[in-house]
Amino acid sequence: MSDIDVFGTVMISLVGGAIRVSTPYLFVSLGECITETSGRINLGQEGILILGAMVGYAISFKTGNPWAGVLCAGLAGSMLGALHALACSLPRVNDIAIGIAVILFGTGLAFLVGKPFIEPAAPMLPALELGWWSNSEAIRSALRVNVLFFVGVALTFALRWSFSSLRWGVVLRTVGDSADAAKALGFSVLYVRFVATVVGAFFSGVGGAFLSLYYPGSWTESLSSGQGLMAVALVIFARWDPLRCLWTSLLFGAAGALGPTLQTVGFGQVYYLVSAAPYALTLGILIASSSSERRAAGAPRELRAV
Amino acid sequence: MTPETALEAINIHKRFGEVIALNGVSLKVRTGSVHALLGENGAGKSTLVKCLTGYYTPDEGQFIVANRELVSRSPREALRAGIGMVYQHFTLVPSMTVAENLLLARSAIPFAIGWRNFRREMDERLAKMPFRVPLDARVVSLSAGQKQKVEILKQLLMRRTLLVLDEPSSVLTPQEADDVLGALRREATAGDLSVVLITHKFREVRQFADHVTVLRHGSVVGDGATPTLPNEKLAELMVGANMGASVSKPRSASKTGSVRLKIETLTVRGANGAIAVDDASLAVSPGEILGIAGVSGNGQRELIEVLAGQRHAESGAIAVDGAALSSTRAFMSQHRIALLPEEPLRNACVPEMSVAENLAMRTYDEAPIVGRRGAGRWWLNPATLADWGRGVIVRNAIRASGPDAPVKTLSGGNVQRLLLARELGERDVGLLIAANPCFGLDFAATARIREKIIAVRNAGAAVLLISEDLDEILELADTIAVISAGRIALRTTRADASRAAIGLAMAGGAQVNDSREILSA
Question: Residue B113 and residue A298: Cβ atoms within 8 Å?
Answer without folding.
Answer: no
